[in-house]
Amino acid sequence: IFDRNKDGYIDREEFTRCWNQWIKTIVRPVSVFLIVDVQNDFISGTLNISQCAAQQNGLDVIEPINRLLDTVEFDAVFYSLDWHPSDHVSFIDNLPYRRVDPSSQVKAEDAKTYDTVVFEGPPLMKQRLWPRHCVQDSWGAELHKDLKVVEGAIKICKGTNPEVDSYSVFWDNKKLTRTTLSDELRAKNATDIYVCGLAYDVCVGASALDALSIGYRTVLIDDCSRGVDLSDIEKTKKTVASSSGVIVNSNQVKAMV
Ligand code: VGL
Ligand code: ZN
User: Fold this and answer.
1) Whether pLDDT at 25 is above 90
2) What residues have a C-beta under 5 A from ligand 2, the ion?
3) Which residues form the signal peptide (predicted)?
4) CA-to-CA dists, residue 36 to 21, 120, 154, 213, angstroms
5) Would you say the CB of residue 130 lies under 6 angstroms from ligand 1?
6) pTM as predicted
7) Which of 214, 222, 218 has the alpha carbon at shortest distance from 192?
């Protein structure tokens, strides 16, 4: 397809034109780093994951994430924030103000933190009950002070609708409303998404799976993520891997971007 010079090579001008027109968009990934919910409440606040079943420490993600931010040239960096109003449906202390459906196995009067109840419909809605956490503008909702926030990064708030929870950074759990993330990614022509943060088996996993479902090449960074429940973390990894996601350690990332 190319006019070749006498040595059989296309000349520099022709190559530059092809590179700018189409080669670049095929061979050059546009890599986005999505850092999920590295907020005080998940590390040392009301939903401290070190007190959850897996007994992992949320603080452990900060050092490897900062190292990636310092050493890898991502095309864009996003920080998500769980950002709930005070009357949010996921808070167990709001249960008295809401109606559990008779079909719910866990009854309102027996419900404990981390249980899943079914709220009245229509449509019925399964909801895991969490301690009050990441309330808008509270200390617990702030990014941890040791997490590096790079210039030009974009913050995405989720979970702002009191009636529906939102684990994925893309959509709420009912897929009723999108955050701004999809539009931001399209505007940047993103091809590859590197996902990590808290909690591995909740918001990180849901975000990675949504990224895959949209069609992004998705890389889950294992050592930059900590979760709530070990068997759920394993389930997350299996589902991501079987959906063609890639699971790596942070020391493998620089060579990929
Ligand atoms: C999360 C539980 C409740 C998370 C958010 O960010 O993983 N987990 N809300
Ligand atoms: Zn939440």
Assistant:
1) no
2) 82
3) none
4) 34, 30, 12, 18
5) yes
6) 0.91
7) 218
Residue 37 near residue 226 (C-beta atoms within 8 A): no
Residue 64, preceding peptide bond in cis (omega within 30° of 0): no
ipTM above 0.95 for this complex: yes
Please give the structure tokens belonging to residue 66: 């900062």
Tokens 């196995």 correspond to what residue?
105
Model confidence at 16: pLDDT above 90: no
Q: Is 129 in the pocket of ligand 1 (CB under 6 A)?
A: no
41-78 tens-digit pLDDT:
999 999 999 999 999 999 999 999 999 999 999 999 99
Q: What is the pLDDT of residues 98-153, one digit of tens each?
A: 999 999 999 999 999 999 999 998 999 999 999 999 999 999 999 999 999 999 99
Amino acid letter, 249: N
CB 79 within 8 A of CB 153: yes
| Contact call for residues 126 and 106 (beta carbons, < 8 A) | no
Total number of residues shown for the chain: 257
Question: Which residues are CB-neighbours of 155 under 8 A, at least 6 positions away?
Answer: 78, 79, 80, 81
